[in-house]
Design goal:
about 280 residues, alpha/beta, Metallo-beta-lactamase, Chain A, 6-stranded mixed beta sheet, 10 helices, about 25% strand, elongated, binds fe (ii) ion
Amino acid sequence: MIRTSPLPLEDELGDVLEKGMRRAGLTEEALAEATGVAVARILDAVDYRSELTCDELRRIAGVLKLNEVGLCALGLGKYPQPEIGGLPFCVWPLRMPHGIGVANAYLVSECGSNRALLFDTGAGMDALDAVWPGTIRQVDAVFLTHVEAEHAGGLCEVVARFGVAPEHALVPGGAVAPCGRPMGEGERRAFGALEVTAYSTPGHTAAHNCYVVRAPAARSGGSLLISGDLIFAGSVGRAFYSGDQLQANLQRMLTVCLGNTVVAPGHGPLTTVENERRFNPFFV
Ligand SMILES: [Fe+2]
């Protein structure tokens, strides 16, 4: 089971439109021209004051090649957030304020155990301590999705605090991270009943991993996709490195994972692969 409560999405309609225009290489003016929607209405929407109708959003989705159902739902403030459950292990989302936003890390453990795997490390140990569950006393391994301050700042402190073995402090191949060793595409690590597989998913940054956590011996229950800043509920991360690679990796991860896989993003609420296949504006 997962301890969580409803959370706002990481991205609003304005963010999604802005990312969509960037992906398509279109300005607000060019989008207005191509859709027949007044440029002032597009500018308002990008500025978080949307009055766009679903009909207008459908035209915009057509030009920007976005999922029109998801875009309309976002525009109405009704993006679906699925029920989360059915995992054969326990997950603690650690939500840490950072700047004007919130960055997520995750602890994953066999339920009832006081030992866990940690995915991302927040800005530092102080941020982690503020949200750390009292039941978890030991970290057997730590995995980074990518090296940015709000996701990776605490790596060396976590390694020191818990005495994590150097070969169990894992980062994406090519990442510059003191205290971390590279874990590349398709590599697997097992810790007790839990198995972690790395997927190399550049796009947001050049070095970026997603991780799939499974309990192979469990007779039922799904998997967990730690998606970093590749997939958010209702959006994607910013393409600092490569928009094309980000798009390809979004399509790949939402295709290779089963629909009941729980998605645990670097920002915003949990979701599922099925939900994002149906509604994520960027999955086409
Ligand atoms: Fe981030």
